[in-house]
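DM from R.C. (forwarded with permission)

"hey, sorry to bug you on a friday — could you get me a structure for this? deadline for the figure draft is monday and I only need the backbone to look sensible"
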Amino acid sequence: MERLEYESIAELPKEKLLELIADFSKNWLAMDGVWFQSIEEKYGMDEAMEHDAAAWARYTVVEAKRIKGFLGLPERGGLCGLGQALRFRMYAPLNEDSVEIEGDTLIYRVHACRVQTARARKGMAFHPCKSVGMIEYAGFARTIDERIETECLSCYPDLTDERYACVWKFTLK
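My reply, with the result:
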């Protein structure tokens, strides 16, 4: 029997691991979109958004806890911990983003969003992600540090800064 070049993930060199992480992120995002669109097509956007909100309320806490443990963040990771954790989310390799911390505030900007880009490419209406984004980002931030409050500065359908797909403000109280 012919030996494969790599028999397991553990054998992969760093370059191939990074490529695999990007593929895993794309696959995860595709699955997220496929289940959402199946509900959207059959029952409409409102029903899909209700299920999306329920899923994100649970998933974001699980993801944040795992990232927090992986990075070894303290119980109260503060804004630095949040800024670092945002860079390790499942979709982090896919979206162009930036983090700025000034005093007791962190501003997180998504410059290009793969979900909205894909929907536009398919001729679909943009995903009205602000309401679910509030659930997602607030839950993620509170899991990193319960003192962090979340505010949406710009997100579809309430874009106030068209240079970015969305902008979120996190304040340490």
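R.C.: lifesaver. Residues 116 and 122 are 10 Å apart (CA to CA).
me: no worries. The chain has a mean pLDDT of 94.
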